[in-house]
Amino acid sequence: MSFHGSVVWDGSRPRSLKDFSYTVNPLGVPDFVKKLVEEAVQLQVYSLYPPNDYVYLESLLADYVGSGKVTVLNGTSEVFPLLPPCNVPEPNYSSYKRASSYPAELVGREWKYELKGECVVTSNPVNPTGACIDRREVVRFLREGGVLILDESFMELSDCESFVNLVDEFPNLLVLRSFTKSLTVPGLRIGYAVHSKRKEWDFLRYLPEWRINSVVYYVFSNLDYSEVRRFLEKSREVVRSMRSEMTTLFRAFVSYAPYVVVELKVDSVSANDKLLRLGFNVRDHRGFRNFKKEWARVAVRQDYRELYDAMKSSDLI
């Protein structure tokens, strides 16, 4: 069974929670995205099929990232079942297909990740620890011929370095990106893969023809991507400031991502049961390997002090 941070739904409606179990942009959905969604509904594009290819949108995204070839996805999760099993340094995202696992090194309050074997899949920044994969380690691994799949779903809200600029040099590198987190649109479901034009990855043959719907296509084909860049620059500044405050307040582990790992006095499942009764939710330890039961991943949100007070009053930290 897979465990993920996500909104709790009661039947047909989402439960009203201050939900720190999943991570999106703390600034919320930008107005320029809301406007395009409203336009799409007014134009009733939901009554139309999207294009039978995504060439126009993929060209826009290729310009946005500045290298490689882009393949549009219905969120990055669409690809994970289609990729080969690889080695995974742990802790890491639970949905990757694993040939084997090996532990990352916790040095003081910060995780260090190495790339080992012939094929590695890892998030960057790493989910759940917030660690960055080091550039020297990436280049070394790729030059030695290793196949590397980097999930950069949280990249644009982090202080980590992206490696999309290496795909043209290294056809053995596949980078996965997402707008779900950065623009707070998990319900729209859009991600994309960045890869070398010189290599056809096997998974591409198995992608469904209709990967995104017409509303999503309309929104992301009409975005001003310079406006997106400005919004995300501001977002990173906000995340950086709030993460620093949260790290001090919660005595969290070092993170460069829009989430932190907090150590609790009790196991995180029991802690979350108490928090849910108080109207809060965090991501507990289940599904993560090499991750203590007392650890919880907490999203960077503007109301983090309310969560801290709830944890403190419940004697969880």
- The CATH class of the largest domain is identified as Alpha Beta
Helix content: 25-40%
Query: Proportion of β residues?
Result: 15-25%
What is the number of helical segments per DSSP (H or I, 4+ residues)? 7
Q: How many domains, in number, for the residues?
A: 2
SSE topology string: EEEHHEEEEEEHEEEHHEHEEH
Instruction: Supply the CATH superfamily name of the largest domain.
Output: Type I PLP-dependent aspartate aminotransferase-like (Major domain)
Mean pLDDT: 95
Structural class: alpha/beta
User: Major β-sheet, in short?
Assistant: 5 strands, mixed
Count every beta strand, where a strand is a DSSP E run of 2 or more residues. 15
Shape assignment: globular
Descriptive terms for the model:
317 residues; alpha/beta; Aspartate Aminotransferase, domain 1; Aspartate Aminotransferase, domain 2; 2 domains; 5-stranded mixed β-sheet; 7 helices; 15 strands
Description of the molecule:
With 317 residues, the chain is an alpha/beta fold. The chain has 2 domains: 9-30 and 227-313, Aspartate Aminotransferase, domain 1 (Alpha-Beta Complex), CATH 3.90.1150.10; 31-223, Type I PLP-dependent aspartate aminotransferase-like (Major domain) (Aspartate Aminotransferase, domain 2), CATH 3.40.640. It is 27% helix and 20% strand. It contains 7 helices and 15 strands. It has helices at residues 31-42, 55-65, 135-143, 214-221, 225-250, 268-277, 304-313; strands spanning 9-10, 13-14, 18-20, 69-73, 86-90, 98-103, 105-107, 110-112, 119-123, 147-151, 173-178, 191-195, 259-263, 280-282, 295-299. The strands form 6 sheets. Strands 4-12-11-10-9 form a 5-stranded mixed beta sheet, covered by helices on one side. Strand 9, helix 3 (135-143) and strand 10 form a beta-alpha-beta unit. Helix 1 packs across helix 4 (214-221). The longest helix has 26 residues, at 225-250. The radius of gyration is 19 Å and the shape is globular. The model has no long low-confidence stretch (mean pLDDT 95).
